[in-house]
Design a protein that fits this description.
2 domains, about 40% helix, binds phosphoenolpyruvate, Enolase-like, domain 1, 16 strands, 14 helices, binds magnesium ion, eight-stranded mixed barrel, alpha/beta, TIM Barrel
């Protein structure tokens, strides 16, 4: 039986050294699931609300835990997540916190899988989910909100699209990351790492493009399969509402110039992926760019859609972007994340499952990406909280094939 008998909540450390919410869900027949909430730095304006962890835990203990214990079945994810929504009573989880909600939601899924004796990806995706595995997008140079005094563009992402296996792809991204370090060294550019483990050198975007392009071609020649790259521009962080311009360190661009700049980058570097190239409120500009380059690259909405079906539906109506980033903590539950993926799929949009800049060793997103058969997962290239997911992907592929 998957009847929930206990939900335990505590604060644990995340990769930035901040506290975050961890949940344990226990069931009648001895099932156990544990999960922890991640946390963003370049958060979208329309994300579900992350509360201060001790407040989120206190509110969840008061409102959600009594409605789950002895009442809900961990194997029935929609029921669990529906209870979390009802217990919260707001649109954006501002009562119990999206951090408590997502930790409980993911822990319940793991407890449900545990009772079945099935791996989480199979519990979530079913036996007939297919044999595909996502290509990991590896953050190799980054700045923006994830590192001070580095690139304006938040993430330069290695994309080993031709890798014959998940493991080959994971190691290729690590090799691109290492090669970037060597190239920086050759140029006498010192670099620490940003929040996601990407190199965070004090260089401009143009130099980062040169270095990433060279690193990708070097590793491509070594491994013998195709490696491309992509970006998370995180443009909402650069956008100035008053002047209606995108503020770069060395220049500013109005919306038309930003669209032209991104379209040129897609062309010049044959980018396979461009996330948040425009402001999170500008569906129209997203639609214009998608019209221009949507047949060559994935134009992905992260802050634009925030894993929210209403915002995604709005984008679909307008032709804004052609893919959505899926971050369960942006919306609060696994059910909501699944619904967003489903809506995307029905409308020809791709989904990319993603980590947050603040992470833990939790591996739920690796299982979510496999369960939902998405083409890409964005979960860094190196660093313990990133390799936790990457190594789990390798294990899943190893067990499943
Ligand atoms: C992972 C990202 O960063 P954060 O978690 O800081 O929003 C992102 O913007 O895609
Ligand atoms: Mg993003």
């Amino acid at each position: 039986m998957t009847l929930i008998t206990d939900v335990r909540l505590r604060e644990v450390l995340d990769s930035r050294g901040n506290p975050t919410v961890e949940a344990d869900v226990l069931t009648e027949s001895g099932g156990f699931g544990r999960a922890a909430a991640p946390s963003g730095a370049s958060t979208g304006e329309y994300e579900a609300i992350e509360r201060e962890p001790s407040a989120a835990i206190a509110a969840a203990r008061k409102h959600a835990v009594p409605r789950l214990v002895g009442e809900a079945f961990a194997g029935n994810q929609r029921e669990v997540d529906g209870i979390l929504r009802a217990a919260d009573g707001t649109e954006d989880f501002s009562e119990i916190g999206a951090n408590s909600a997502v930790a409980i939601s993911m822990a319940a899924a793991k407890a449900g899988a545990d009772v079945l004796g099935a791996p989480l990806f199979q519990h979530l995706g079913g036996t007939f989910r297919g044999q595909n595995f996502p290509v990991p997008l590896g953050n190799v140079i980054g700045g923006g909100e994830h590192a001070a005094d580095a690139t304006d563009i938040q993430e330069f992402l290695s994309a080993p699209v031709g890798a014959p296996s998940v493991a080959d792809a994971v190691f290729a991204n690590a090799a691109v990351h290492a090669t970037v370090s060597e190239l920086l060294h050759e140029r006498d550019v010192p670099a620490g790492k940003g929040d996601e483990g990407a190199w965070a050198p004090s260089i401009d975007d143009a130099e980062a493009f040169e270095i990433v392009e060279e690193a990708v071609s070097t590793v491509e020649a070594e491994v013998g399969f195709e490696i491309r790259f992509g970006l998370d521009v995180a443009a909402a962080e650069m956008y100035d509402d008053e002047s209606e311009t995108y503020e770069y360190s060395d220049t500013s661009r109005d919306t038309d110039q930003q669209i032209a700049y991104i379209a040129d980058l897609v062309e010049e570097y044959e980018l396979v992926y461009v996330e948040d190239p425009l402001d999170e409120n500008d569906y129209e500009a997203f639609a214009t760019l998608t019209e221009e380059v949507g047949d060559q690259t994935l134009v992905c909405g992260d802050d634009l859609f925030v894993t929210n079906t209403e915002r995604l539906a709005h984008g679909i109506d307008r032709g804004a972007a052609n893919s959505i980033l899926i971050k369960p903590n942006q919306i609060g539950t696994l059910t909501d994340a699944f619904d967003a993926i489903e809506l995307a799929r029905e409308n020809g949009y791709e989904s990319i499952v993603s980590h947050r800049s603040g992470e833990t060793e939790d591996t739920t997103i690796a299982h979510l990406a496999v369960a939902t058969d998405v083409p890409f997962i964005k979960t860094g290239a190196v660093g313990g909280e990133r390799t936790a997911k990457l190594n789990e992907l390798i294990r899943i592929a190893d067990d499943a094939t």
